[in-house]
């Protein structure tokens, strides 16, 4: 009787934790999709007068696009892949039973993939952060001039994407911690000393 | 009798795993220390003739230092902090008994710290990678010229530090995976259904 109660408690807790993990994964998905879209749509054009011939000004139009910086391209790819990863994990949780698990391999593969996702998302977001810092402030030692004074909206939009990506990383970390904590807590099948 | 055998098997396996984790942590420590030192010592001077007055050439000496790029400063700090983290974890494993653990909090704190370390190391290394790419190839859209043609050794040394940091990240990931896998496998105290 006591064992049945305990089993009931464990399964109720398990489903609550599963709901929490699904919620966190959906939030991470939204954050990475937002980061991908905001960065992929980042484009700003400006027209500058460079000279005057007679009374006619000579103008050139310069367009700043996200593709112009390799770090931004990696950022878009990384956030898109992380979004696909979230979708895959969500469908795995919702449509594939927990029973299909070979010797705890499912847990360790999911954890490893989550960890790799955190690593490359963090890399992409931080690279964009430092490229943004360079674009805003320039670097006098390397004689790289700042460009954000002319393309302010472009830089702000890039910063927004970066922020969304960092929020996504936070949710990925929470998912991973909840998963790991709960796996260690309620996983009798993996434990050779369990009843 | 069977239970005693099982307990013996578990503790033998636990100590083998502990040795593996210590080995991986020491390797991670070496990698991050190497990355810190190689980057912190990165400095190259070049003398250029900029003009000739009469027969006397006018020369200027330009020095490239790692401090000139914010990404490099973050890289050195991140790898130094990761090295301290490894040292702390190693001393925790070697000198503080596994018994001092409040409701599995020790495991979750160590795992969370390892994950955060992976995230910021990956961020620092990737930021340096993209700054290096910019220094090598320049960016015609932003009119940022390449600088590595004049400071080749400086750029190569930075790349070496980056590589060491990525190797460190790999070891941190392995440590984390081994820790997580083993915790789920042999942790009867955390399991309400265990014997």
Automatic annotation (TrEMBL), chains A, B:
Keyword set, alphabetical order: Cell membrane, Membrane, Transmembrane, Transmembrane helix
Membrane topology: Multi-pass membrane protein
Ranges for domain Casparian strip membrane protein: 17-170
Cell compartment(s), UniProt: Cell membrane
One CC-aspect GO term: plasma membrane
Principal place of residence: membrane
InterPro entries: CASP/CASPL, CASP_dom, CASPL
TM ranges: 20-41, 73-95, 107-131, 163-181
Any single Pfam family the record assigns to this protein: CASP_dom
Recorded family membership: Belongs to the Casparian strip membrane proteins (CASP) family.
Quaternary structure annotation from Swiss-Prot or TrEMBL: Homodimer and heterodimers.
Name of the protein: CASP-like protein
Organism for this UniProt entry: Ambrosia artemisiifolia
């Amino acid at each position: 009787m006591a064992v049945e109660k305990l089993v009931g408690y464990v399964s109720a807790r398990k489903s609550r934790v599963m709901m929490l993990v699904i919620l966190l994964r959906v939030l991470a998905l939204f954050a990475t999709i937002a980061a991908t879209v905001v960065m992929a749509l980042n484009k700003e054009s400006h027209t500058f007068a460079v000279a005057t011939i007679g009374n006619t000004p000579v103008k050139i139009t310069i367009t700043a696009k996200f593709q112009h910086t390799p770090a931004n391209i990696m950022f878009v790819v990384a956030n898109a892949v992380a979004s696909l990863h979230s979708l895959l994990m969500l469908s795995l949780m919702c449509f594939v039973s927990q029973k299909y698990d070979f010797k705890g391999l499912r847990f360790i593969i999911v954890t490893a993939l989550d960890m790799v996702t955190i690593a490359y998302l963090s890399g992409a977001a931080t690279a964009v952060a430092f490229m943004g810092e360079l674009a805003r402030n320039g670097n006098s030692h390397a004689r790289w001039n700042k460009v954000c004074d002319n393309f302010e909206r472009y830089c702000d939009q890039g910063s927004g994407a970066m922020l969304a990506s960092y929020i996504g990383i936070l949710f990925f970390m929470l998912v991973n911690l909840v998963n790991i904590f709960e796996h260690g807590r309620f996983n009798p099948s993996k434990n050779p000393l369990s009843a």
